[in-house]
Amino acid sequence: MKIKKCVITIAGFGTRLLPITKTISKEMIPIIDLPVIFYQVKEAYLSGIEEIIFVVSKRNIDLIKNFFSIDNVMINEIKDDPKKANLLDEVNEIINNMKFTYVIQKIRGTYGSLYSAKDLLGNEPFALMYGDDLVVDNPPLLKQMINIYEKTKQSVVAVRYIEEDKLPKFGIIEYKNGNILKNICYKDKVNPSQDIILGRFILNPSIFTVKDKLVIKSKELQLPKALLYINEDVQVLKLKGKYFDMGNKLEYIKATLYFGLQRKEFHDDLRKYIKEIEKNN
Question: What pTM did the predictor assign?
């Protein structure tokens, strides 16, 4: 069955990015001239996804809806200016070719956020993205995961390598048979790997049958544990591309520099400026 729908969870408060997130939700903070959320939607679009289901809060739903809607007033404003007429083309192409649905998060936690979208997913496999995790890969990471699902019909989780001194207290991947999820472990003196989950998943609808098995911690239901309860092997794909944690201020700066250097109109001047900074500091 084709993966047509992708859930993107963006209902958090963005407290790690305060004070800016008092007035703008973190997924709408711009990287150059596009909000973080657009890069994730674009990844889904290039991976063949037809519908995005945003799990949102009452604080950010209007911002997201406004961005992913055709703005005819703005189009008319710029249509006769040759320098601006095409600025919305990439965004509008995706808006015109995808369906966008919105649901308010009802239960806290990563599993709780996903569960809020359950009624919109039916009995079909689907993709899931966390709003914090920005990935650059070719082909798109989500497309690679969909390809694995089409071959195995099993859920797929993406992971990334992390330096040992930065391993979290919980979330370390233990493998069996090379690329199958065996366990998700607490940090110890000796760890089964240096891989941790990042926010990309392909999931079968059976993920919704394990809700009652999850232990509520701090009133939150967490998805990683749910992966261990579903009655199937879970395939693991290691990220080979770039990763940015968009809830981290330093990572946000790095992402802005990276994407700026990918743009022809900024590349040379930006490299020159970076060299000037290095020389003078």
Answer: 0.93
